[in-house]
Design brief:
heterodimer, A: Udp-n-acetylmuramoylalanyl-d-glutamate--2,6- Diaminopimelate Ligase, Chain: A, domain 1, B: about 230 residues, alpha/beta, TIM Barrel, two-stranded antiparallel ribbon, 9 strands
Chain lengths: ~110, ~230
């Protein structure tokens, strides 16, 4: 599915403007330890995390993630959103806990 | 000057009860250290007793604490003056998650006087992450006149490397702490923008018991100390 379809079907909020929502999502990866994510993430995955530090953007770009989903109702700081927009990376905020966020993706066939 | 600027007193639940203010200072003196810092987790409450013990025993001391940011990164706050270090405490209190300590599981958190007598116990668990980001921790350390040293940067637990993947290039830290000199190469390999000669490297023990306090092997020049913290006298 595409990021656009995910947003439409979950109601989760994309916080980046003008970042490309037509990208495909193929699988997902859950972790908050960026050292692990750098080693294990795969291209086109949606990355579910509660980590909102600016290094998230560099790691997501490095691993060529489709998008980053911040779970638990947490929010990305402004400087992180603007860095993501520079990198054409979609950031999404989910009110659900990490497990429920992942379950939603599974239900939608990711 | 031989130094060790990262060790835990018996206020930290994970440290041994033998880590009293006087034991720490005496052991450091026996080992031949000139400058030490006691850096308990998220607390400055052992520092008044440590300051007095250091003065009585005659060993140099910086005053510190090891903060844990919301990203679970450990960062040392190190101050030249006791009062400045203590001025960080209200900010720490305001950012504690308020989890009570379970002594049986985590260990006790003893506050002592300069005679190594127990004068209190910290009821809130100290090994927690503050509700403040790493950026906010560094900013507050600087606002209160301290230096921010990223702790044990290549460790596999609570280091900037495990938590954030790499050292944030824009973070205005004052120094990087490692455990062994050869780790400098590892840090630079992972963070190629870091200049070895333009970085303050500290090699500390992170001791939780007396035996682990550094021997007199790591030296810091008085110039470096003065550059970071001003004249110690």
């Amino acid at each position: 599915m595409t990021i656009q379809q995910l947003i439409e079907q979950t109601g989760w909020k994309p916080v980046t403007k003008d970042a490309d929502v037509t990208k495909e999502i193929n699988g997902a990866y859950c972790s908050d330890l960026l050292s692990w994510v750098m080693g294990k993430g795969q291209p086109d995955q949606a990355w579910i995390t509660v980590q909102s530090h600016i290094n998230v953007i560099a790691v997501a770009v490095l691993r060529e993630f489709s998008c980053v989903i911040l779970a638990e109702g947490a929010h990305f700081p402004e400087n992180v959103i603007s860095r993501a927009e520079d990198e054409d990376l979609v950031l999404i905020e989910s009110d659900l806990p990490v497990f429920e966020t992942a379950r939603k993706l599974i239900e939608l066939g990711v | 000057m031989f130094y060790d600027l990262h060790m835990h007193s018996c206020l930290s639940p994970c440290a041994e009860n033998e880590m009293t203010p006087n034991n720490i200072c005496n052991m450091a003196l026996i080992k031949g250290l000139d400058l030490i810092a006691v850096t308990d987790h998220n607390s400055t409450k052992q520092l008044p007793a440590c300051a007095e013990a250091a003065r009585n025993i005659g060993i140099g001391m910086l005053f510190g604490t090891e903060l844990e940011s919301s990203e679970e990164v450990h960062v040392l706050a190190l101050y030249r003056r006791l009062e400045a270090a203590l001025s960080l405490q209200p900010w720490i209190d305001a950012h504690m998650p308020g989890i009570p300590n379970d002594e049986n599981y985590f260990g006790n958190q003893l506050i002592m006087n300069a005679n190594d007598e127990i004068i209190g116990k910290e009821p809130q668990l100290l090994i927690v992450s503050l509700t403040a980001t790493l950026d906010e921790c560094v900013e507050e350390i600087h606002r209160t006149g301290g230096k921010a040293i990223l702790a044990h940067v290549v460790d596999r637990k609570n280091s900037v490397t495990t938590q954030l993947g790499f050292i944030p290039p824009d973070l205005p830290y004052d120094g990087l702490e490692i455990k062994r000199p050869e780790q400098i190469k590892e840090v630079i390999a992972r963070n190629p923008w870091i200049k070895e000669n333009e970085t303050e490297w500290l090699i500390d023990s992170d001791a939780h018991n007396l035996i682990d306090i550094s021997e007199a092997v790591n030296e810091i020049s008085e110039d470096t100390v003065a550059r970071l913290w001003g004249d110690l006298q």
